């Protein structure tokens, strides 16, 4: 039996969290948050609140990751606390909606930044953007299939680039503030306080913070997880939240609210106003940022398929690793295939809303599992623990995020998403519970195992 190697240290851990969080969102989402919530000051409050919520969620997941030291994040936690059916519904939704939607949204925004400098007079052709996005997905799938260390190195490199880009934007804002150019930072005029606006603004803001639980997907590949997991969460999320606030301040000191809301790529507009003819630099930085975030998404997403297959919730081939490279290549190939399918009809706005709706539904269930463990299993070893009030707060926030937009302004699309989640039961009963497995699947597994040079991998805990 093979086992995954513990190759990810503290620096790599911080890079995976920060690198996955800092993707396309901070370069695109600020104008959407501002347009939905209605005022600059309220938008800053939304960004700060999103950071606090991400930190609370990350700390809660850090305890889960040390109590249940297995890769797979939400899936494995649900499996160990709320049962096999709930865990299957999560992996069914994750594989078909959540991870492909996340990867596709990031890839589309990366492609947008790559091609936008060549179409300064208008929007680039949609087909071209999607082709470039597909190229990004395929390139990163190959890197992640070839080497864990190469994927980790790429993540660290892209994280350095995106941190430098955001630092430049943040410093530009500080210079403006020193010069007394505060813009409309303190203006609450036009704030939308209805439930739907607040919920959608959080969706858009939290998209930029998505990735705060990245490290929990690869706990078995993390060195000393009982120490490095909570440390990496605190370092990475604090760093990202501070940068996001400074970057939004910079945007609002350089641009008027109207300019922000009408911009297709707010970072590029900022770069054009500050750097003039050198504004294209921000396009390159934003593209590399999204590329790094996409890499982190692939690295973690493939692990969920891998762990779910190991537990019998997906085909056996997905629980195998390459015999020489020790990467979960079948799971990565499968994730790539589904992401490319989602890319065909995908558009950024819908992807963000439906992804956030589904993600926070399952975050609430996962954290209910943490509350259960704290109350019913206080005897479990806990190298790291958080007060009971923290998961309760995050659960309340998650329930609000799931229900608020639906109650305030019902849309049929949310019903479709909910029906899709629960349709997993139809798949679970024959294929998982009754183990209806045609012989053709067994033959296909053997064929793919030989073709891809993979073998079953055991747990590394």
Report a brief summary of the structure.
With 461 residues, this protein is an all-alpha fold.
Summarize the amount of helix as a percent range: over 70%
The largest sheet is: 3 strands, mixed
Tell me the distance between the termini: 14 Å
| Cα gyration radius (Å) | 21 Å
Percent of residues in β-strands: under 5%
Shape: globular
* Number of DSSP helical runs: 18
- Determine the mean pLDDT: 83
* Beta strand count: 3
Outline the low-pLDDT stretches. Answer: none
Structural category is mainly alpha
- Which sequence of strands runs across the widest sheet? 1-3-2
What's the order of the H and E elements?
EHHHHHHHHHHHHEHHHHHHE
Task: Give your account of this protein's structure.
By secondary structure, the protein is mainly alpha-helical. It has helices at residues 10-21, 25-37, 40-67, 74-81, 84-115, 126-146, 148-178, 195-209, 225-254, 257-262, 266-275, 280-310, 329-343, 348-376, 389-408, 412-422, 424-433, 439-452, and strands spanning 2-3, 320-322, 454-458. A 3-stranded mixed β-sheet has the order 1-3-2. The chain is globular and about 70 Å long. The mean pLDDT is 83.
List the helices and strands and how they pair.
Elements: E1 2-3, H1 10-21, H2 25-37, H3 40-67, H4 74-81, H5 84-115, H6 126-146, H7 148-178, H8 195-209, H9 225-254, H10 257-262, H11 266-275, H12 280-310, E2 320-322, H13 329-343, H14 348-376, H15 389-408, H16 412-422, H17 424-433, H18 439-452, E3 454-458
Parallel strand pairs: 1-3
Antiparallel strand pairs: 2-3
Helix pairs in contact: 1-7, 1-9, 1-12, 2-3, 2-8, 3-8, 3-9, 3-15, 4-5, 4-14, 5-6, 5-12, 5-13, 5-14, 6-12, 6-13, 7-9, 7-12, 8-14, 8-15, 11-12, 12-13, 14-15
């Amino acid at each position: 039996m093979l086992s995954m190697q513990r190759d990810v240290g503290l620096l790599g851990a911080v890079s995976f969290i920060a690198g996955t969080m800092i993707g396309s969102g901070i370069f695109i989402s600020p104008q959407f948050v501002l347009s939905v919530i209605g005022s600059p000051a309220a938008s800053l409050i939304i960004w700060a609140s999103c950071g606090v919520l991400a930190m609370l969620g990350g700390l809660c997941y850090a305890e889960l990751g040390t109590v249940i030291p297995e890769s797979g994040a939400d899936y494995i936690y649900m499996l160990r606390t709320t049962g096999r059916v709930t865990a299957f519904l999560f992996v069914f939704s994750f594989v078909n909606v959540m991870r492909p939607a996340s990867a596709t949204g990031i890839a589309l925004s990366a492609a947008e930044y790559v091609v936008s400098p060549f179409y300064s007079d208008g929007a680039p052709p949609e087909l071209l953007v999607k082709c470039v996005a597909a190229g990004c997905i395929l390139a990163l799938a190959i890197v992640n299939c070839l080497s864990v260390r190469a994927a980790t190195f790429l993540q660290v490199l892209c994280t350095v680039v995106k941190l430098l880009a955001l630092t430049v934007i943040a410093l530009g804002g500080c210079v403006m503030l020193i010069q007394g150019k505060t813009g409309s930072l303190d203006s609450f005029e036009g704030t939308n306080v209805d439930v739907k606006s607040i919920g959608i603004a959080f969706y858009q803001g939290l998209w930029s913070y998505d990735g705060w639980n990245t490290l929990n997907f690869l706990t078995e590949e993390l060195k000393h997880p009982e120490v490095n997991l909570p440390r990496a969460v605190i370092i990475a999320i604090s760093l990202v939240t501070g940068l996001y606030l400074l970057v939004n301040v910079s945007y609002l000191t350089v641009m008027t609210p109207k300019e922000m809301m009408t911009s297709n790529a707010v970072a590029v507009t900022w770069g054009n106003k500050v750097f003039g003819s050198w504004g294209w630099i921000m396009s390159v930085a934003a593209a590399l940022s999204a590329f790094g975030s996409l890499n982190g998404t692939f690295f973690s997403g493939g692990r969920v398929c891998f762990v779910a297959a190991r537990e019998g919730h997906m085909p056996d081939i997905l629980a195998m690793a390459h015999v020489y490279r020790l990467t979960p290549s079948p799971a990565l190939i499968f994730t790539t295939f589904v992401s490319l399918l989602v890319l065909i009809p995908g558009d950024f706005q819908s992807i963000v809303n439906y992804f956030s709706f589904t993600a926070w539904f399952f975050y609430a269930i996962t954290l209910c599992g943490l509350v259960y463990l704290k109350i019913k299993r206080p005897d479990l070893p806990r190298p790291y623990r958080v007060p009971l009030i923290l998961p309760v707060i995050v659960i309340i926030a998650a329930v609000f995020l799931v229900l608020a937009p639906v109650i305030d302004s019902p849309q049929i699309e949310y019903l479709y998403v909910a029906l899709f989640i629960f349709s997993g039961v139809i798949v679970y009963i024959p294929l998982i519970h009754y183990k209806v497995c045609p012989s053709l699947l067994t033959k296909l597994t053997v064929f793919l195992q030989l073709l891809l040079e993979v073998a079953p991998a055991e747990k590394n805990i």
